[in-house]
Specification:
The protein is mostly helical and 122 residues long. It is 52% helix and 5% strand. It folds into 2 domains: 33 residues; 58 residues, Winged helix-like DNA-binding domain superfamily/Winged helix DNA-binding domain (Arc Repressor Mutant, subunit A), CATH 1.10.10. A hairpin with a 5-residue loop joins strand 1 and strand 2.
Amino acid sequence: MPDVVNQARKLIEVRLRELEDEANRLRDALSGLSIDGRTPRRSPGSPRAVSGKAQRGTGKRAPRGQREAQFLAVLQRNPGAKVSEIAREMRVAPNQVYGLARRLQHSRKIAKRRGGGYAIEG
């Protein structure tokens, strides 16, 4: 009987770790969403937002297409925004935004304005 109890205990512990990992992934995804252009308040226990420079070496990557969607959402709210403004609002380093802007220009989703800002192509 003690063997069965120990096995059940181990299975439950493994499942709890899996659920904790999934909960952390969901918290990260939730913190990446914005409501009406505002970043939602962080929940207790979630990491603080990066101020100024983007954090390095976290090892996490944004899901495919997330940065593009964020970039376009910023431009929709703020047409003519420059790379530094977009990067600040997205909370990423400007060099990431430059590369993204170049790809979006090549795919003709955005256009560069004369003042250095960007606009969504019609």
